[in-house]
Amino acid sequence: MSENIETTKCLIIGSGPAGYTAAIYAGRADLQPLVYEGLQPGGQLTTTTEVENFPGYPEGTQGPEMMEEFKKQAARFAGDIRFGMITDVDLSERPFKATADDGKTIVADTVIIATGASAKWLGIESEAEYNGYGVSACATCDGFFYKGKDVAIVGGGDTAAEEATYLAKLCNKVYLIHRRDELRASKAMQKKVFETPNIEIIWDHTTKEILGKTEGFSKAVTGAIIENVKTGEQKELTVDGFFVAIGHNPNTDLFKGKLDMEDTGYLITAPDSTKTSVEGVFACGDVQDHIYRQAVTAAGTGCMAAIEAERFLAS
């Protein structure tokens, strides 16, 4: 066989809590999985700072450190973990074929997809500067750090409404910034927002800049400049945290036309399963979960995917 062609019982595309957990379980099952980590090894958690809601870390931990520990544990059982991307897949017949960016062709009996999702951002320079230092795309992950403080959240859909009401239970004040004069959220979610006294909706505004301070190696958000889309008038909000809730993009371009997916791009898996529309192909983590989007749930589905791949091969 050509040196540019490799075979494996299980190809895992992507890393993060889902991909690394799948690698641990697949490795322990002697599937000798081959992992391609993708452009962002460790996934979204590598862009966060403190993680306090993952079991087993009573004092909390840093997101990048946590993912490095996941990787080390995965490498203990699944030794072939590679930095690189899968650029094309042929899922039309088994064994499946995948092309990597290093030019190799991978022939795989099963495929586990753990490519995750990417948060949509506003695209302003200061947002990137303070990402992880007061700017967040996950209220459930980071809201606790702003207990008793004032925060802002951008968005107008169900996610923004849900995260605003979640933050309102922890924070002193929540400013919900929306560029329109009505929310896109469901009526039930809108009702919750309107009935929560410490949520103030700022209609017809967009965010121009996120303000912050830098002291040595430490950064912190101090506020935001927002602009009225009708009048152009700008004003400054004083907040300690800034949350962006304008949606996520699942990283599924590679699988369009090859696997069933929702209109929003999330891969469709069978109920109580990680099975996709192609037998022998499984999906785990945020690439198929637009509801919970937590590290612990991603890890759980990574476990499920590896067990289902093992059982599929055994059958």
What does this molecule look like?
The protein has 315 residues and is α/β, with parallel strands linked by helices. It folds into 2 domains: 5-118 and 249-314, FAD/NAD(P)-binding domain, CATH 3.50.50.60; 121-244, FAD/NAD(P)-binding domain. Helices cover 25% and strands 30% of the residues. It contains 7 helices and 19 strands. Strands 1, 2, 5, 6, 7, 8 and 19 form a 7-stranded mixed beta sheet that branches. Strand 14 and strand 15 (218-228) form a beta hairpin. Helix 1 runs parallel beside helix 2 (63-77), helix 1 packs parallel to helix 7 (295-314) and helix 5 packs parallel to helix 6. The model has no long low-confidence stretch (mean pLDDT 94).
